[in-house]
Specification:
By secondary structure, the protein is an all-beta fold. It is built from one helix and 16 strands. Strands 1-6-2-3-4-5 form a six-stranded antiparallel sheet, with no helix packed on it. Strand 8 and strand 9 (93-96) form a beta hairpin. The radius of gyration is 20 Å and the shape is flat.
Length: 190
């Protein structure tokens, strides 16, 4: 049975069917206009193609919510442009394109356990752990007295992404990054 949601129920990450495709809400804002009533402004990402659009909906508009089945898997390796995962139930190897994975590619490290998001026997994406430990490969050196500003510095991590870290973090250290926000959380426990 299909679950129906209205535009007033939108939240970041909600997936729903609209215009013959599956869309994920990247951003939304309930906007009350003077006499004209309210609208829900959204930024949407097409789950299958990765393309993004902005659209406004009336609060009473209804949509079919898409709920994925989850299957445990493990990231194995990158094969050309694609990423190879092992289904932990069947041990089958599954190849997934970077378009399907979206921003998740920034956090993938070998042997990481994730959940495959499956809808109608198609892999629609993956769910990462809430945080991941990544090694710092490059960051500018800190200097004496740098701690007063309380700011941070850019650090490039083993997956190629750049995050802002405290000035005391050095190359070679392992840090914990929030996969939902891309923010530094702490140094990894040894």
């Amino acid at each position: 049975m299909a679950q129906i949601v209205s535009a007033t129920d939108f939240y970041v990450g909600l997936k729903f069917k609209w215009q013959g495709a599956i869309w994920e809400i990247a951003e939304f804002d309930h906007h009350k206009m003077g006499r004209g009533g309210a609208v829900v402004r959204t930024k949407l990402r097409n789950v299958e193609t990765g393309s993004a659009v902005e659209n406004s909906f009336k609060p009473e508009e209804k949509f079919e919510r898409v709920i994925y089945d989850e299957k445990p898997a493990q990231y194995s390796y990158k094969d050309g442009a694609d990423y190879v995962f092992m289904d932990l139930a069947t041990y089958d190897q599954l190849t997934i394109s970077p378009e399907t994975l979206g921003n998740a590619v920034k956090y993938l490290v070998e042997d990481m356990e994730i959940k495959l998001e499956v809808f109608e026997d198609r892999i629609m994406g993956i769910e990462l752990p809430k945080s991941v430990a990544l090694k710092v490969t490059d960051t500018p050196p800190s200097f004496k007295g740098d701690t007063v500003s309380g700011g941070g510095k850019p650090a490039t991590l083993e997956t190629g992404i750049t995050v802002t870290v405290p000035v005391f973090v050095e190359p070679g250290e392992v840090i914990v990054v929030d996969t939902r926000t891309g923010l530094y959380l702490e140094r990894a426990k040894k």
